[in-house]
Amino acid sequence: MTRTTANNINMINVNGDESDPYYRYKMPRINTTFINQKKGLTDWTNASIIATAIYKTPEQIKKYMCKKLGTKASISKMGGIIFSGKLDTDTLQDILQTYINKNVMCKKCNSPETVEERCQSCGNKQ
Q: What structural domains does the chain harbor?
């Protein structure tokens, strides 16, 4: 279930649970555009916004995504991540959710407020 409001169009729960429309932590869905059809580049345009929502940097997310996708990427001037190859948005969203579950959600209290491997909610060190 996607919650849509005037200010937060197409926001989803950070924890990936679509059944709770009142979940506190939200992020936008991944937006992509294809650029340079000859080279086949995928621009994840809102990567910096999502990175902020999950208390990570675009660089941290890029490193994980590149490893999982087996491709190269760079950070754009606008804070997006540009991947080599034409990539499906749903695939990127699934890999991002795996990253969040593995590296963002606190193992003790299930909060996404982990900064530098420490949960800001309960103090647990990841």
A: 31-119 (3.30.30.170)
